[in-house]
Amino acid sequence: MNSSTPPTKSSNSKGLLLVGVLVIALGGGLVWWFNRDSEVDINSLSQGGVEEAIVPGSQKAVPQDSADADGWNTEVFNSQASKKLKTLGKAILKSSEIQKLPADFFYDSFQSTELEPSSGTVSTFKTGRVEVFHLTDPNTLNFKFAGKEGAQKCIQSLGELFKTSQNAHSKFKIIDVKVASGTNGQEVLNQAYFQASGENGNGTLQINATWGLTWSLNENGNIHQLKSLRLLAYEKIVTQLEHKAAFSDLTDALLGKSKVFEEQIRPGVDQWLGTIEANFGLDIGGWQGLAVGDVNNDQLEDLYVLQPGGLPNRLFVQNADGTFSETSKAAGVDWVEASHAGLFADLDNDGDQDLLTSTLDGVLIQANDGTGKFKTIQAKIHASAISYSFGAADYDEDGDLDIFVCGYNPRQGVDRHILFARPVPYHDANNGGRNMLLRNEGPTKNAPFVFREITKTVGLDENNKRFSYAVAWEDYDNDGDLDLYVANDFGRNNLYQNTNGIFKDVAPEAGVEDISPGMSACWGDFDNDGLVDLYVSNMFSSAGNRITNQAKFLKDADAKTRAEFRRHSRGNTLFKNLGDGKFKDISIEAGVTIGRWAWGSRFTDLNMDGLQDLLVTNGFITQEDTGDL
Amino acid sequence: MSRSPTGSQALNPEQSYLDSWSELAELIQQGRSFSGRERNCAFLNTGKGKFADVSGAFGLDLIDDGRTVVMTDWDHDGDLDFWIANRTSPRLRFLRNDLAQSQKALAIRLKGNPSLKTNLDAIGARVELHLKDGKKRIQTLYGGDGFLSQSTKWLHFGIQDAEEVEKVVVRWPNKANSMETFSGIQAGTRVQLTQGSGKAQVIPSPKRSLNFQHQVAKSVPASDRARIRFAKRPNLKAISYRNLEGQAKVITTGNRVLLINLWARKCTPCVKELYEFSQDKEKLKAQGVEILALNVDDLEGVDAQAQKEAKDLITKLKLDIPVGFARTETINELQKPIQGAIYRHRQLPVPTTFLVDSQSKLALVIKGATNTQELLKEVAQLNNLDRKLSVPFEGSWSRDIFKTHTIAIARAFLEGQHPEDAVDYLLKFIGKTPAPPAGDNSPLAQKVRLQLGDVYNLLGSITYRMKDFDKAATYFGNAAANSPKLLVAQVGKGESLTQAKRYDEALEHFEKIWKLKPGLPPAANGLAWLLATHPTQAKRDGKRAQQLAELACKSSRYQKPEPLDALGAAFADQGDFKNALKWARKALQEAQRLRLQELAGKIQHRIELYQSGQAFRSPQ
């Protein structure tokens, strides 16, 4: 499929339907052609077809599993309660849906607190266009609604908020399941996060709440009726906006004219997984990043887009009118080999942005000729691991930039990118690929710069095989040199303290090991106390929370292992820098753990009020099938 | 249900983890979602150590499989806009910040001074913004952070309406340089701070009209249409099917190009395509292409009506090409090679066309409609095995531009102090490079042998340094076998055998080198040592050892510790301990000068032996 045949934008059978319709539409023109053989009327013979667009035997049904497959009865309850809550969520956002709730949804003597408290909330933040309200003391709430009629009123009073909303959506996540004996036999207790948001006439609205729920069981032991609802935590965000969106999606406006964007970047990874051989190093995870830099010194920032194996990396250069043109071929950066990260930095201090690219074939280093062209590879570093994120810093203070390169899986001759690592032991692995520090040795007669791998010499080979995804340099101890934090997927994270150019992993003493699967790390002084704090992306799994909280989980393991497993699915971590070389994990109090299955995350000041906020990208694998594993 | 690897309950968490991952990987490959449809999150810092989840309120709760987010002030209005990369469609989004409409944000760009040992980008510099009310905000310029991401090199400070800038202090990323203060900076501007200048230079925003409207970028589902030209063509030896009479048939591939077309009777493009193939039969035949068109309407062989309709259509179309019925096994046979090569092969649409080359390899699959012209083009390039033809879009291959030099890469690993990686890498090269058969003296064969010689030689010296002497002896031996003129490998083998305590073999080997290249100093040294210290008396010859050692010493101007040590040992073997001590002491001096601590220790031990009137014998 070269550029002569662009992939159709339509889906499976629809794509073929389109072809079919086209043939019929062109029929008039084709008659002349077919009429040469007057006995065959292809036009009529080919009419009325196309419903069988797929070879029937070729499609394998997506396998389904059942909630009890793993032997956790609480997971069965979770699955039953989740279904019911989904219906309830719909009813909250649309009052007409309340009538559609089954007559026996609520228990006869159902009781509930207010879900949208009429008193007890205070405004805790008001800056610019944003105001945040909190319920100060949920314990003061009484069961205000009772019986089936009360239930309806209770739901309606919450739904009132979204009555005129557009694009409203809600989501429940059950984080705790317990079985208890109640007044009428066994009952199931849930804790669930509830979130709902929508656009109103002059802004937006969001509710974040934690609910405690009690369910009755039927004679088969299945979740039956909702017995009670209690509001455990409540937060409301109100924005005032002139436009519809706080953040305008301008993707199509800025890139829509680019054929490269339409053909290659708009389709998801799944499209390419079905059409490009796995041997080109395509990964299912979509682990491809972005680098911003001004490649041609026109004061407008450009974007390098890394691509999976078989698709060329792309460089979008900003035009004077704010749109972007794709120039990767002319710029000499359209590498087809599977890539992960890119980095723009002036490696030879000549006033332009040079480029590093981590590919399955090695780390490529190219010098910019000053006009945004990167014609020659100055060096290709053959890393022993599959390279991920880059971090540049002049760790040895000699005036040029050195580069830290994260390594994930060891290479060992693997061309094919394997989906999952094989970490051993799972929660605390040390059999991954090696990270490396490349020291910039400055220019030689033949090259603008030369890099030398000095990982071991400077002490960075310590705890260095933990499937590293991300790196962030910072002077956390304010001693004037740059230290290094490394986020590891299957091992504790590293904090390498720099002392005169020699590094030591001080993560345990500093309290920043973070046993969870680390995907990303960034620094920022969120409390403006002059000490940089640390935010680490991990995996929040509500299933992991539900299961690891139970007594029977790993019941034969020691308490430490159990705690580590529990911590593993807790979510993202915010470490407050205490200034004495130690950090305090304040994630729960700060309310920043639930970044879901998080990848890139960063400190950034969203509303420019001088306080660093957080933005988290997440979601592992979404395919056509809706039944999530 | 949400499944997590922590859900395993076996007593051995590692094994059960690996097992459950394998199982999950398989389910994902078959199309299941795993923690999918999750919405991105945004947390607003509300002060006092608290954050509020504002994902929905800010419209940042995109449901994409988000991977990375980078900041850039695209419209130069002082606040931060975002690029987000996704796994799902669309894989890239741009979000303009319309929330923060503070007029007072301060954007700062830094310029370091390389002559003051600061990189020009000033990456790593710490910027302190001091406000008039005494408050301070800090930011550091990063060169990449987060997940696979790099943001703008401008630092953006949010400043509230009531706040005023006092000054900005920059701590350049070099301890030798003191902090530099920049004053006279106004909130709401964009400034460049150049190291050593002490003055802020205002950089005006480019004047341009950026009138673009919010429109959520659409997501497109994965399409089944594809043209897959296999880079590594899978085998497809035979295909079973039924002929129109329902008899089981097998068509074997090879010796000609076979075109297999799957069609359904009610599929419009199929009918058109079939008719065209039939019309163009001769054109295809002229290119050596044989056609087999298989109907897929009755894979179970139970629907007589469908069969009849298909046959009627064949008659009406006057098809003049071999036609038959595909059965379930036909589809399985055809899909198997695709499933092996393509990670996420979903299904086969009709029409689908297969081209099997004359070597019985599946070269091409076109999912969706095609035509004769396209197929003839494909057939014409069937002999071109360049893998570049197998990717959907043109691009550059770093492999082509940068030729891999095995020895250079291995040396880089060694330089990085990772000998084990160098060994792995060299062994990988050997695994991929079969030795040319004996008797093949073509220039290529000679080149490969020399390459192998170099690679084995390097392997030998690495393993020698890692003190794996038996392996080193084998590697050096292989090096010499491939590249007989590589004397350093010959000597290396002798030294390795000596260190491996295989003295007889070592002696024999050194004698062989001596015969091949009489007078070679390292061979003289190796022989001298063995003749002086061999544990078996019959093998020793102190006199000859002395002569050889003297030769080796002379050639190294009496400055190398090893031949001096051998000379000492030769005298000791002859009972001349006075001379033994003289040369051993000289050897010790040279070893210390060269900081060869281990050798120095051994020589020291020998000196003690000689002092007590004992010769040195190599340990068994």
What does this structure look like?
The complex is a heterodimer of chains A (about 625) and B (about 625). Chain A is built from 13 helices and 31 strands. In chain A, helix 4 (about 75-95) packs across helix 5. Mean pLDDT of chain A is about 85; it is low at about 1-40 and about 415. Chain A has about 625 residues and is an alpha+beta fold. Chain B has helices at about 15-30, 270-280, 280-285, 305-315, 330-340, 370-380, 400, 405-415, 420-430, 445-465, 470-480, 485-500, 505-515, 520-535, 540-555, 560-575, 575-595, 595-610; strands spanning about 40-45, 50-55, 65-70, 80-85, 90-95, 105-110, 125-130, 135-140, 150, 155, 165-170, 180-185, 190-195, 200, 225-230, 240, 250, 255-265, 290-295, 325, 350-355, 360-365. Chain B has a six-stranded mixed β-sheet, sandwiched between helices. A four-stranded mixed β-sheet of chain B has the order 10-6-13-14, with no helix packed on it. Chain B starts with 12 loop residues before the first helix and ends in a 9-residue tail after the last helix. The chains are: A alpha+beta (about 625), B alpha+beta (about 625). Chains A and B meet through helix 1, helix 4, strand 2, strand 6 and strand 7 of A and helix 1, strand 1, strand 2, strand 3 and strand 4 of B. Strand 31 of chain A pairs antiparallel with strand 1 of chain B, so a sheet runs across the interface.
- Separate helix tally of chain B: 18
Low-confidence stretches of chain A: 1-38, 413-417
The biggest beta sheet of chain B is recorded as: 6 strands, mixed
Alpha-carbon Rg of chain B, integer: 38 Å
Arithmetic mean pLDDT of chain B: 92
Number of strands of chain A: 31
Strand content of chain A: 25-35%
From the structure provided, what is the oligomeric state, counting identical versus distinct chains?
A: heterodimer
Physical arrangement of strands within the biggest beta sheet of chain B: 15-22-21-18-19-20
The total beta strand count of chain B reads 22
Largest sheet of chain A: 8 strands, mixed
* Percent of residues in helices of chain B: 25-40%
CATH class categorisation of the largest domain in chain B: Alpha Beta
